[in-house]
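Before relying on records like the one below, remember that each one covers exactly one chain. Contacts with other chains, cofactors or solvent are not represented anywhere in the record.
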Amino acid sequence: MTPQTTSPAGPNPLPHTAESPHIAESPDALPSPGALPSPDRIEVLRYSAFTADPAGGNPAGVVLDAEGLDDARMLAVAAEVGYSETAFVTAHDTAARRYRLRYFSPRAEVAFCGHATIATAVALASRNGTGELLFETPAGEIRVGTSLDDGLVRATLTSVPAHSHPARDTQVEPALRALRWSRDDLDTGLPPHVAFAGNDHLVLAVRSREQLAALDYDFDALHALMRRHGWTTVHLVHREAADRFDFHARDPFPVGGVVEDPATGAAAAAFGGYLRALGLVTEPLRVHIRQGEDMGRPSDLYVDVHPDDPRVRVTGQAVPLPAP
């Protein structure tokens, strides 16, 4: 099962906020875009990220030569691809391994997308060799290390500084109504927060794995709430045991025209910052997030958090998918 999408009605961008900026023009940083490619020459690579199995993970489109494409064309390509996000390399300095990257869902541009970042890094490493990459994104500079692991490319992104703060009751209560949950369903040890590592995500922890598996939310109500607050996804988690940092997650993404993401690297990075803000990271910590199981596309995200570093590292593999 691929991510389910609604039929996009046209551009519907997320609010522009200080924490969710669109790309800032910096013409001196990278070469200027070239001539606009004709539509039939736009090559879209397809990868599934955070998995070693093409039947799992989160599919992403990757356009390595998007120089000259305007916003409307990139949005149209993303809508045609139909994945939760497609990444576009809009400028590059290949010798310096430095690239400008933008991300579009079928409905909107987003400031940062973790799984499309991993997919793009793997695509570039497959063409140009493994090593360090630097991506200029609307959310800031993202460094990605790539290496070979049993014949597959593994990528680790380092987020912008992450932070998290308690969610207000006026945010939590309507979210619970849209999810058809109640306060009694929540894990009191992991309080509701709004967490950021490139995008804002509402984080809600549920006590029961069965409750998470049975998710059936009000798409329109959650979409309206998320647009009002500038959230990219709602990161719903269940902790397997109080003495372990193993989590199951689901991420509704209605603002992107997508019912749910099978793997959400940006939310995983924000969740690492959330755990740090709660004081749960007292030494270097690796967190395992299992996502996508309830959609039939299991994904594994590995999140490294350090008590003295606000940046979070998210690691995963990506595998190519055949063109439709």
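DSSP finds six helices and 17 strands in the chain.
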